[in-house]
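pls ignore typos typing on phone
adenosine-5'-diphosphate + seq
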Amino acid sequence: MPVQTLDDLAVQGTTLGVRIDINSPLTESGDLADDARLRAHVDTLSELLERGGKVAILAHQGRPGSDDFASLSPHAERLDELLSYPVTHCDATFSADARKAVGNLRESEAVVLENTRFYSEEYMEFPAEEAAETHLVDCLTPELDVYVNDAFAAAHRSQPSLVGFPTRLPGYVGRVMESELDVLGDIDATPRPRVYVVGGAKVSDSIAVAENVLERDLADHVLTAGVVGNVFLFADGADLGDASADFIHDQGYWDYIDDAADLLETYGDKIHLPKDTAVERDGERVEITRSDFPPNEDEAAMDVGDATITAYSKILRDAGTVILNGPAGVFEDDTFADGTRELYTEAVNAEYSIVGGGDTAAAIRKFGLSGFDHVSTGGGACLRMLTGDPLPAVKALSR
Ligand SMILES: Nc1ncnc2c1ncn2[C@@H]1O[C@H](COP(=O)(O)OP(=O)(O)O)[C@@H](O)[C@H]1O
Ligand SMILES: O=C(OP(=O)(O)O)[C@H](O)COP(=O)(O)O
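k done
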């Protein structure tokens, strides 16, 4: 689907609505705990400001009801520090005050409009044509000449600020979006053998990714780990014990065991399962091999063990391409970080490596790893692209 990039845009003197994704973890006092997502957009924003644009920034923070549902004031302050152009904050999104702030912008100035999700329609999903008629889009459109979407991490949401503007204004992708689409949209050109590592806790998404890439013959190996690996173990008839079964039930993923079993039946030769697991016993990490399952009833499977790490590492070492999403265990707890650290370290050495996901990126930072060819800014959006489904925000920009 061809989209227009910033190379196709005459920026000087135009007022641009620029949707970015700076949804970030916050400290208890409401400050930014991590500015990685802000830094990711520096290139796009600097370029637009350097080229004489008047930039109205649209973004969200958190979800209604969550602790991190907050003002974008700290984000604006941080962007002002990161960019060599003035960035202010407006505590309105599309009211008369917001429109005035946008209308008063001079060339090479930016304003961060308030959290789009403070407005209820923004937390609903609409087809693009309906999103174009929402209050936010309707009120702001007359103030804007152009719409730029750089919010790859939110591009799987069909919300007004993401899909509504391009039917009313010329639409372009920013540099983050452009690079994500280039890399993730061209997986079938990457070297083989191609190894997918599906870990983490988004079981339904990960099963959809595995199914899609196996069906399309994109994957030579699928290595399962994390909660996803545990679901596949149950699907293969292994008894991982009551604690892990309860966890999978509570997360609403029990029904996916049947889907995992169907995949194993069709593509069993390409799907790899953990050979062992790590549990906590008397405050210590204890590894249990599959032949000794189940663990005691209160012992949940929290990480893959050494035998799995060895087997998976060998496959990763021979990989042409590694595409990795999700940690192999509860890496936040050092006791259960081994699988994630070891497998990620091995993945860096692949000829070509792509990683995606918010927690995956956090794990990479925790272990101080560098050298991946592409670290996606998106979690859900990255997974959606890997399933082959079009992203609504990209579809809305496509001509
Ligand atoms: N065996 C496990 N049991 C419980 N939680 C796990 C396990 N393995 C991984 N996790 C959790 O999965 C979460 C990350 O999963 P996910 O959100 O799918 O990753 P990402 O954000 O990278 O897409 C982490 O919080 C991690 O603690
Ligand atoms: O953090 C985000 O997605 P991610 O957790 O999948 O990386 C995006 O900002 C989208 O947020 P949402 O999942 O509340 O729509």
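The pocket of adenosine-5'-diphosphate (ligand 1) is lined by residues 200-202, 226-227, 230, 301-302, 325-327, 329-330, 332, 357-360, 379 (CB under 6 Å). The chain has a mean pLDDT of 96. more later
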